[in-house]
Amino acid sequence: MKRLVVGVDIGNSTTEACVASVSGGSVEYLGTALTHTTGVKGTPENTEGAVDAVRRALVGARRSPADLEIVLLNEATPVISGLAMETISETIITESTMIGHNPETPGGVGLGVGTTVSLDGLAGAPPDEPVVVVVPGGWDFDDVAVELNAAAERGVPVVAAVLAHDDAVLVVNRLRTPIPVVDEVAAVEKVPLGMHAAVEVAAPGRTIRTLSDSYGLASVFGLDPEQTRQVSPVARALTGNRSAVVVRTPTGDVTDRRIPVGTLTLTGAGKTLQVDVDAGADEIMDTLGRVQPLDDATGEPGTHVGGMLAQVRDTMTDVTGQPAVEIQIRDVLAVDTFVPNEVRGGLAGEVALENAVALAAMVRTSRSRMQVVADEVAEALGCRAEIGGIEGEMAVRGALTTPGTDIPIAVLDLGGGSTDAALLDRDGVCTAVHVAGAGELVTKLIASELALEDREVAESVKRHPLAKVESFFHIRHEDGTVQFFTEPLPPHVFARVVAMTPEGPAPIPTRASVDHVRRIRREAKRRVFVVNALRALRQVAPRGSLRMLDFVVLLGGSALDFEIPDLIADALAGHGVVCGTGNVHGNEGPRNAVAAGLVDAHAGAVSG
User: Fold this and answer.
1) What is the pLDDT of residues 210-247, one digit of tens each?
2) C-alpha 599, offset from chain centre
3) Band of the pLDDT at 553, cuts 50, 70, 90?
4) Which of 70, 138, 286, 591 is deepest in the core (most CB within 10 A)?
5) If you ran DSSP here, which 8-state letter would residue 344 be given?
């Protein structure tokens, strides 16, 4: 007799359902469905998403809910992941000592070094001293050009100019002798007058060379070794700019100050170790390796890392009802990164890339509330519902429906908050682990290092290949190939770096090149997914050796990424491991493994 069975996998981000007709030990898969998970995984709020997934799957299979005999749910252990990103160093400019600026369209080309003077005071400037003219707001570009030309005729060596408005090109086009001009300096009234200053503008397509070099600054301003060391953060902040303004005041100084970010205390393997977060990701992960398996992690009170870990515990308390003191953090992942921070003391929103550490933490609880979900699903659908199996074991069963796989087999479930690994050996024993950090951390790293304020833009960079729009009728893809179009591209993508989404080219608000954006995207994926894949597999592999593994199947939403599977496969290739993206049922790809495994396990139990 054939029975209609649905397996439901409730994940951190998505809920998947698999409909099958079961007769004895044989299974005929009829359809699948995918919805967003409602609530935190492993809580009663999951019911709505689970019921929706079941109903959608039944519609796709053209079956009636009245025919449904049983719904099988995974044993969904709540896994809460939190992210923190803390700056380690910060460039501070006091007394407005140095300012750097990079407007979209500076004027002129070259380096001008002189004494700052206001446009209003230009008439009294001596004829033998080079001057950098500071133009406050309210001046029209025609009038500015007239004043600068008149000063030059009087013999005043005007070597550069700094403007408040976006008028640099308009002014330079009206000068008899072009000079480097930097515009869009919002706080131009704060530029100190009567001080030694330098203005540099590079040719289109090039970047400045003198003011972005510590020894170039030393040469321009006659700095001694100690002063050169102090101004090196300024040179770093100006690297990659097409233009810059640097003003030196005799009383100011520049410091590169290390900010305490807190201490992480890791407990496990019968010992407790402490590590400063500002020591960097490598030191944190080395310390973690000495205490694994991790029992708990705590952060120094009053610091960013302490607050983040406390927030993760509070979230889990709300979800499970367990007291915060009973909730333990089972894994952390630290990643070195860069955060574009506004330079304190700058005059035009100058930005410097500062060292930072991103930290992901994960909590698991043994107190599952999935039986409540099963009861509510049964009531909503009018059928039986029960917990069909542990997630890791079911994922391995589903992965085995991928053509070309065999036991022993390991799976990597690449999700949004965590990366999960499971191994099924020849004796039928399944071992599973969960490690912190997955797709959400990659998105955060990309957004931070590219200074993207919109999370959806960072997601687009993560998910899609890049290109540069070189004309209204052709683009150059990140691999160097050129694509031509018969219809003109939208004007807002012209000359922009774009993500090639299914809806068409989507502009990315960055001045970085295609190669730079691509490098950041791939490095973020490597530092999260490749690192986590290797450390998770080592925890389930016999004797911790990757060479003891035969087949590794990638599952989950991130396994659909266009480059993550290749990055992981390349990392495992040297260990003789067969690694690839799962294809559940031979046609579902990396989705639906747990749901299919639940159906398969149920059929085997009934026939047995």
Assistant:
1) 988 889 989 998 888 888 877 776 777 677 778 888 88
2) 36
3) very high
4) 591
5) B
Q: Which amino acid is at 273?
A: L
Nearest by Cα to 335 from 216, 227, 443, 253: 443
Write down the pLDDT at residue 94.
41
Residues 6+ apart with CB under 8 A from 145: 170, 171, 174, 175
Nearest to 594 by CA among 335, 373, 316, 400: 400
Residue 28 structure tokens: 């005929």
Domains of the chain: 1-77+368-402+588-608 (3.30.420.40), 82-88+259-364 (3.90.470.30), 93-253 (3.50.30.70), 404-465+512-582 (3.30.420.40)
Residue 554, amino acid = L
Work out the pLDDT band at 126, boundaries 50, 70, 90: confident
Q: What is the pLDDT of residues 193-212, one digit of tens each?
A: 888 889 999 988 788 899 88
Phi-psi bin for 332: left (phi > 0), alpha (psi -120 to 50), beta?
Answer: beta
Tell me the C-alpha distance between 132 and 112, whole Å: 7
Tell me the CA end-to-end span of the chain in Å, nearest whole number.
16
Confidence (pLDDT) at 258 = 45
Burial of 398 (0-12, 13-18, 19+ CB in 10 A): buried
- For residue 293, whether the previous peptide bond is cis, meaning omega lies within 30 degrees of 0, is yes
β-partners of residue 85 are 358
Dist CA 506 CA 493 (whole Å): 7
- Please provide the DSSP assignment of 20-86 as one string: EEEETTEEEEEEEEEEEPPSSTTSGGGHHHHHHHHHHHHHHHT--GGGEEEEEEEE---EEEEEEEE
What is the structure's pLDDT at 18? 95
CA-based nearest residue to 339, from 324, 323, 355:
355
Give the model confidence (pLDDT) of 244-267 as tens digits.
888 876 654 444 444 456 889 999
Residue whose C-alpha is closest to residue 307's, from 90, 87, 84? 84
The whole-number pLDDT of residue 87 equals: 60
What does each C-alpha distance from 192 to 136, 188, 345, 528, 595 come to in angstroms?
12, 9, 13, 46, 68
